[in-house]
Each structure stands twice: as structure tokens, then as C-alpha cells.
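Render dihydrofolate synthase in 3D.
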Amino acid sequence: MIDLSLARISRLLQSTPQTWRAFHVAGTNGKGSICAYLSALLHAGGSSCGRFTSPHLIDRWDCISVNEKPVSETVFRDAEEAVKQRDRETGLGATEFELLTATAFEIFHREKVEYGVVEVGLGGRLDATNAMREKAVTVIAKIGLDHQSMLGKTLEEIALQKAGIMRPGVPCVVDRSNSPTVLKVIEDHAKQVGAEVHYPPTSELAEALSGSGYEPHQIQNLACAHLAYRLGCPNHDSSLTHLVEVARKTNWPGRLQRLDISSITGDGQQVLLDGAHNPQSAEVLAAYVQKRLRQGGRPVTWVLAASRGKDMEGILRMLLQAGDSVAAVRFGPVDGMPWVQSAEPEGILDLAKQFGVQEPYDGQDDLPETLRWASAQASGGPVVIAGSLYLVSDVLRLLRESKNH
């Protein structure tokens, strides 16, 4: 269940002192990457830090990290039980995400971290994470059309929800590549709140990273993280050299990630794994695929899944070209997030046919067999897995299991 309100989470957090300062990150695309860069910078700078991002990647507890390591299942379950007990005693009836947020904050308190890097779950203003009290810096990443039924039909309406994480006197770093109308909404809201907006410069960073394979959106995310770090930790080393060094060591799975899936397919197939799940992130993925994988007009074999309600037509319009092959599959149940449902493969494939895809493959619930089909279909050509972070999770989990056997 998703129920946007701060009343329950605020009461749930009354017993958990916020002994750490927060970097709070909202946006449609890039916020997870900004969180990864930020916590890596804090850790490299000698600060103890926690990170809370969602959804989880493989196990439910890996969405919470302390000092760049996911917390153990024992630590997670102990804190979660304390939070659930509090919920039962007060009769709050908190949602799954509220319980998860309170668990993350409980762990940050118990581990005595100095900083918490927190990704907004959905929107901003009424998201459970916005109940935190001590913010050092807020960050608003690239905004796109997603979750319109809850956040608004236009980019401007959605931007206003995201801007709700601002606080008086707390600097807000904003991705300048957002549209002018979005930036105006954010700037107007900042004036009302009494927060100062900061735009990160990118030219020097782009120059320092030229030839390193960083895409424009990755440089933008890194620049946002760097400026937020400089504003939140003015006494730490924030040189460009230090940033580039930290960035090169930062790993954020499921975003333009190259993977060897031969332990599943048995044939040495390399794939590109990306959680692109809305038209804007699909556009970025499509540009990358065009530049890196479609050399000489090579067709691409896609393995796709999506959450129900996503703009699949908008996503496919960006990704597919005539001559491509497509398999669609359902992702499995999402642990701790029962409201997330997979779209039907048949619907995805019906749309794919409109874009010139021949003989699409309906993988139903069988991801291993779907990956084997894609590998055989590609015959050494590029395979891209995309459309959902939940599909990314399933692939990574399957890969772990296949290597453990």
C-alpha cells in the first residue's frame, strides 16, 4: 500500500532520535546514483555515513548501507522488529514503506553515523523520508513524468512535489539540465521556503572525465553529488581530483551495468543491464545503446519487464528500432512491496510489434529460459535488459544463485 501522509511516520519516529545530519535526494531519474556518489564521498572523507535507497537490489535489507556496506540481515531484522513493535503498541497501522524508512533511521541512530544519505521513495513533500528533522543539504535530480496518478500530470506539478523536501536555510542543489519551466517552479518554491538554490558547474568535471566513458547524465549526477558534499561538509577535501578518484571506484548496479550471464545461458553472453523505467530514462539508455552497441546498424535483442501503469509505449518508442528482437517477461513478487505488480508480457509485446519488431518472445514467468532465448537470438550481438528495477533485481538474484550452485 502507498499512502502519502507524514502523520504516521512522524509518530513512529518519535522514539528514534535523529542524531545524524541528512543529505536528502529527490528526483525522477539519477537520485540513486547521486546517493551512491554522495555516500562514497563521505566515506572517503573519513565520515561515518548511512545510506537508504529504494527499492532494494537483491535482498530486502541491502537498501540500507553503513559505511558503504549493506547492513547484515540480523542488524536489519532486529531494528525492523523494534519499529514494528512500536507500530503495534501505538496502533498506527504504518505502511510497509513507512516501516522500512523508520527501520533505516533506527539503524542510522544505533550505528551512530554522522551523516545519512536518504533517497526519496516517491515524490517528496509527503514521502515518508521527509519526516526527518535535521537536513544538511537537499538535492533535486532530473525530473520526468512518472507516478502521475499520485504526483500530478505535468512536469511542473511533479516538480512542486519534489521541491517539498526543501527546508528554510538549508541549501538545495538542483540539476540544471531540467527544463526552464521546472527550474522556475523549484526557484519559486525555494523563495517561499527560504532555501537557496545552487546549480552545479559541469564543464571542469566533464573535462576531467573526458575519455573515461562517462555519459552526460552521469556527469550531471556526479556534479550534483559533489556540490552537495561541498555545501554539507565545507571542511572536507572537495577537490576535483579527489572527486574523480572516488567516482571511478563507485559502483551503482543496474545502471548501464555490463554483465556476464554465461552462468545462466552457458554461452559466454555479455549483456547490458539498466533499470530504465520511464520514457526519460529510456531516452538516455537509447542514446547509450546507439553510441556503444548499434555500431554498423546492428540490431539489439531486448529483454523487458515493467511495473503495471508505466508508460510502456513511451519507453518502447525510445528503445526499439525495426529489426530488433524483444522478449518480455514478468518480474517476481517484490519482497516487502506487495503493491508492486508486473505488467503482462503480452501487452508489452503487442506494443513492440507496432515498432517493427518481428517474432517477439513471451517469456511469461521464466526468466532463465527468456535469457537463454535472448542469448541464442542475439548470436553474439548486443543484449539489453531493461524496463524495471525489479527486473534488474531478479537478474542479479538469479546470477548470484547460479554462481552459488
